[in-house]
Design a protein that fits this description.
With about 450 residues, the chain is of the alpha/beta class. Helices cover about 50% and strands about 15% of the residues. Helix 5 runs antiparallel to helix 6 and helix 19 crosses helix 21. It starts with 12 loop residues before the first helix and ends with a helix.
Length: about 450
């Protein structure tokens, strides 16, 4: 078979080389010259979508972003104010209180974003798309944001904000009687309360939004940040502007998670893998799978596992090299945990063709690690797992039959923690630029900390 017509196989070394020389963003265009020209012209131009339910504060945040970043503020109203033929068609629908067809709306958006100001300055689009279909059509039309912010707040807070909403008739700025009052008395005097919707209509709009938000968020999950809007507007805005000022690079993530037993490495790896589609590579699971595959190397690994002895580094590295060289790891990236465990293993990994480009240490105290591991138990009847502190057994009957694994006993876990602490300094010396994350927090907060650094510079 002619190699020129066969499937293209990119060797794993390419990921490390392209990452080192910042080449990933050059490996995608059909017309390289046109792509490079456009890339150079718009490399740092913001492209932001600001989404959220009614009354969550999208307009206020979008207007502040527009002013600070110097980008064009795009709203449904501004699209309809244009004097183009498309805008005229769209206004005919709004005049009869009909929804603008999705196809026409997408044409309007594409026309506006292709304008010279949006092209050169960037844009922040408020409240669009409103559902998954619109999002999909925007992607098909080539409208791809660099950052998507999803503002969230409880429905009761949103209803209270809607009731106290005030509008400046001269500027269109939105204020609130309790949450956001203008400092200028002259502005305060001319504010108007516009009762454009009934309470039932507001509730219907919120229910409609809740039905759409899950699939809409999934469409932009790789560039999405959810921000709690039930806090002062200054705090909300600060979180938003910090996120949209992060730059995203087109490079395959090769993530290494380090930390003591019980620090939550496996849990965080699963969460990151689920959201960003990276391959979750657990060294211990790889070794067990290799031991069960019937090969000669597997049989050798099995002998060490049965004897409860550490598998030699040479065998571990062979298993890791085979897994990390597969196409899914090369194209989607990976998250490795459970290896390396000491200085020599770390050096071996760095000398291989699978060097990580992001390294995180989950910092957790021994007491917390002991509590997380030794207080776990399993119900042999149902297979359910419980924890004495975070998920206790539902009744005394279940509690009596719970069983704890021998490897989760206090002496054995304490020994593992002692071994980790002995080698931690050596691992830190190999990765001096690693990010250290406080792992004593709840798992959600740890994930958010990891995620914010994963998507930052």
């Amino acid at each position: 078979m002619d190699d020129s017509v066969g499937p293209l196989r990119i060797p794993p070394q390419m990921s490390a080389y392209a990452d080192k020389h910042n080449l990933f963003h050059l490996l995608q265009p059909e017309d390289p010259i046109s792509y490079l020209i456009r890339l150079l012209q718009t490399a740092d131009v913001p492209r932001i979508m600001l989404l959220g339910p009614p009354a969550v504060g999208k307009h206020s945040v979008a207007k502040k972003l527009s002013a600070e970043l110097g980008v064009v503020h795009v709203t449904t109203d501004s699209l309809l104010e244009d004097q183009s033929e498309l805008s005229t068609q769209a206004r005919e629908y709004t005049l009869t209180q009909q929804e603008v067809p999705a196809e026409l709306l997408i044409q309007l958006i594409k026309q506006r974003l292709n304008g010279a100001d949006c092209f050169s300055q960037g844009w922040v689009m408020e409240g669009i798309p409103q559902n998954y279909l619109q999002g999909l059509m925007l992607q098909q039309a080539g409208v791809c944001p660099k950052h998507v912010v999803l503002l969230e707040a409880p429905d009761d807070v949103l209803l209270e904000r809607a009731r106290g909403r005030m509008v400046d008739p001269q500027t269109g700025d939105v204020y609130h009687q309790s949450f956001l009052w203008p400092a200028d008395d002259a502005v305060a005097e001319r504010l108007e309360k516009r009762e454009d919707l009934t309470e039932e209509q507001r509730l219907a709009d919120m229910r409609r939004y809740r039905c759409e938000v899950t699939t809409l968020a999934a469409a932009y999950q790789d560039v999405l940040q959810v921000v709690n809007s039930d806090q002062p507007i200054t705090d909300v805005y600060q979180q938003v502007v910090t996120f949209v000022k992060t730059r995203r690079y087109y490079r395959t993530p090769r993530v290494l998670l380090l930390g003591p037993p019980g620090s939550g490495k496996s849990h965080q790896a699963r969460q990151l893998s689920n959201k960003y589609k990276m391959v979750d590579v657990s060294c211990s699971q790889l070794l067990r799978a290799a031991a069960a595959n019937g090969s000669a190397m597997g049989a050798e690994i099995q002998s060490y596992l049965v004897a409860d002895q550490p598998v030699p580094d040479s065998l571990v590295l062979k298993v890791l090299d085979e897994r990390l060289s597969r196409l899914d790891c090369a194209s989607r990236g990976w998250i490795l945990h459970g290896f390396p465990k000491d200085l020599e293993q770390g050096k071996s990994l760095e000398e291989s063709q699978h060097q990580p480009n992001r390294v995180y240490f989950l910092e957790v105290t021994d007491d917390v690690c002991l509590d997380r591991i030794t207080l776990k138990a399993t119900d042999p009847v149902t297979g359910e797992r419980y924890h004495a502190l975070t998920r206790p057994a539902p009744n005394s009957e279940v509690q009596k039959r719970l069983r704890t694994r021998p490897q989760d006993s206090v002496p054995r876990v304490a020994l593992k923690l002692k071994v980790y602490r002995k080698h931690a300094a050596g691992l830190r010396s190999i990765y001096p630029d690693a990010v250290h994350i406080e792992g004593d927090q709840d798992f959600k907060s740890v994930f958010e900390a990891l995620e914010s650094r994963l998507t930052a510079d």
